[in-house]
Design a protein that fits this description.
- By secondary structure, the protein is mainly alpha-helical.
- It has one domain.
- It has 2 helices and no strands.
- The protein is rod-shaped, with a radius of gyration of 17 Å.
């Protein structure tokens, strides 16, 4: 029986089905782990880019 991940919907889309039960609920396959890491890096990059753009816009005013 598989357990639904308790994380966000995006994480669920990446994780799909739980491979095995762990303390965190789901264990990622290596392919899905790679996708999740890439998603996390892009999210972090987007946050930094938004902060930089916001700061440059505030400086212009």
């Amino acid at each position: 029986m598989t357990k639904m991940p308790s994380q966000t919907s995006v994480e669920y889309l990446v994780k799909g089905v739980c491979v095995s039960e762990t303390t965190r609920g789901c264990e990622l396959s290596s392919e899905n782990r790679t996708l999740m890491e890439r998603y996390n890096r892009l999210t972090e990059f987007n946050k930094q880019t938004i902060q930089e753009l916001t700061q440059s816009l505030l400086r212009r005013q």
